[in-house]
Structure formats: C-alpha cells, structure tokens
Specification:
Blueprint lengths: L7 H11 L3 H8 L2 H5 L2 H13 L2 H8 L6 H15 L4 H16 L4 H22 L2 H61 L6 H31 L5 E4 H15 L6 E5 L6 E4 L1 H17 L7 E8 L5 E8 L6 H4 L17 H11 L3 E6 L5 E8 L1 H5 L1
Parallel strand pairs: 2-4
Antiparallel strand pairs: 1-3, 4-5, 5-7, 6-7
Helix pairs in contact: 1-9, 2-9, 4-6, 7-9, 8-9, 9-10, 10-14, 11-12, 12-14
Amino acid sequence: MNQYPMPLERLRYFQQKLGVDQAELAALAEHRQAFIQRRGEFGSLFWEYFWQIERTRTVLEHDLPPRHLEKTLGEWFGSLFRERLSEGFIQYLWSSGVKHVQANLDQRYINLGYSLARQFCHQVIGEALPEDRREAVARAVDKLMDFCVLVATDSYITMTSRCDRQVIQGIAHQVRNPITVIGGNIRRLQREAAEDSPAYRAYDAMLEENKRLERMVQDVGVYTRLFQSEPNPQALSLFRLLRHALEVLGKERDLSGVDIKLDLDPALDQIFGDPQDLEVMFGHLLENCLEALDPADPRVILTSRAGSHAGSLEVELFNTGNPPPAEEIEFLFAPFHSSKPKGTGFGLPIAAMAARRNLGSLSLEPGPQGGALCRLRLPLAMSRES
C-alpha cells in the first residue's frame, strides 16, 4: 500500500483530540484476553449479521473460500486488543479502509460494522469484567472505536477523492487536446475566408464556443482542486488581493471605460485565508461584476466593513446592470448553470467554494437601487492571533 501514503500526522491529531492515550489503553491491558478469546464469536456474529442484509450478502456470497471473511474479521477484532496504537497498527487500520474503497464497499455499512463491534465489546464488558472496572474499560473501548471509525472514514474520503480527481483530471486532459486541435483548424480555415463573408462570421462563432470550452476545462480543474485539497490559511491584505485581481483582469480586457471604486476600511485590511483560494475567488467575482455591467453606466464599487459576527469582515461588490431574477440566484451557485450565453457556469460556484473553504460565506442579491450586490464574509486575521 505504499502507493497510498497514510496521513499519520492527521491521524495522530485525531487520536489526540479523542483522548486515546497510553493511560486509556492501559485500562484495557489487564482485560485484553477477555476480548481476544471471543474473537471467533465476534467473527461469526459479524458474518451472520451482514448475511441478513441483502446489499452486503452479495459481498459475502463472493467470499472465497466460503466464510473466509468470518475468520478475517475475528482476527481483526482480536488485533484491536493485542496491539497498541503504534504507527504500524494505524497503518493496518488505514490499509483496511483503502481495501474497502478498492472493493467498492459502501462506507455506511462499514460504519454499521463498527457500531456492531462497539455493541459486542460492551456485551463482553458486561459479561466478563468486574463491575468496578466496567466503566473505565467501556470508556477506553468507546474511544478506541471512535478512532477506528475516524481512520476508516479518513481513508475512505482520501481514496475516493483521489479517484474522483484522477478521473476528472484525465477527462479534462483528454478534452483539452481536441479543443486545441479544433481551435487551430478553425483559425486556419478562417484565414482563407473573406472577412465580410458568412463563413468568416461562422468561424468567429465557433472560435468563441471553442474558447468557452477551454475556459470550462480550466474552471473544472480549479473547482476540483478546491473541492479536494486542504487550504493553507494565513494573514493576507485585502487591498493587495483586490488590486492583484484587477491587474490580472486588466491584462485580459479593457477596463479603461469602467469606473471602479475601492472604498475599503484600512483598519480591517488583514484577512485570514489561503492566498491561492482568495485570488481565484476575487478574480471570478470581479469578472462576474464586469460581465454584468450596464454599458450606459459601467460602475463597480467595492466596500468593506466589520462583519456582524465578531472577528469577521464583510466585503460588498456592487455592479450596475440587471441583477439575475431572485428565483435563479440559488441555481447560479451550482456548477454548469450560467445566466450568460458565453459563461462556463463555474464562476460563482468556484467563488462560493473558496469562501466556504476559508470559513466565509457568499451571497448574491439585487442592489437596493438597481444593479447586483455580492456579499462576502471572511474571517479577520487579527481574530486568529488573539
């Protein structure tokens, strides 16, 4: 399983937060045999329990040799009490989670299995342990089972996310190549057509759609990264982030005719977030503002103030133009849904994902006197330092 590295630091963090320490494990030490000697009973109970469930019976029917899993589960149960939580044992738990994904087992049934194991442990405690030791051992068992569930869940999420990401990245790569070839051939054909001909205009329309597909492939990659990677939050300057986003957009489009006003509170400039996430977020939000402008009154106003929640900042991005209908707003935050004919349907979903990853929120509504108003809430860096 070396190709699937175990996130030991994260798992040790879970162990610490659950309080599964050597003192708790010591409570189990003198009673290990009470659990280990009943491992065969647990294997049989587990097998019979899941044989009664139609969805899991299919898995057991393909168990070769017959009832092999019964013995395997009994040994797994015994190992919970033979082993201390060494790195090797945590790797064993993690690798079990990897195998669950490879076998396409539903994680809900895995969690159900851990619940059954917990109940069996409490049965053993009630039947085999002295009354004055039951509470301490039950507490240690519960923490141990909680840790096992967290390791299995972490493994499941990590592996399925990695598989999803590989599939999406593969699709994006395979689509990008044909798009490039198609675009190149359209340009070549267009050069051979007269600029005032219907063919030239048709090629123009095809090139625009080709560019939209290119942007969509790029946005899918960004959305996937946000969905599956871990943020790296730090103190950042809101003013610098917005200036940088405007500079990038200025290289892509002419902003000379747009009145862009930054009315930011200098005392609330330091925000807390992942720099890459927030650069992407502000880039998409500003691009969305610019695309929706009223041509007769092209204005964008950005303001900031203390948020309604302690330690938070609220940023408002206002743009002139017709706001989206109220009944469509919630759909604009779903991938592939766009109110613009040339939109990719990922601008607002990417921005909202970036905000959520960085402990913030994003909303869109009609402006009080026309136009559209985007409200963004983010944590202040100063609240994290105190």
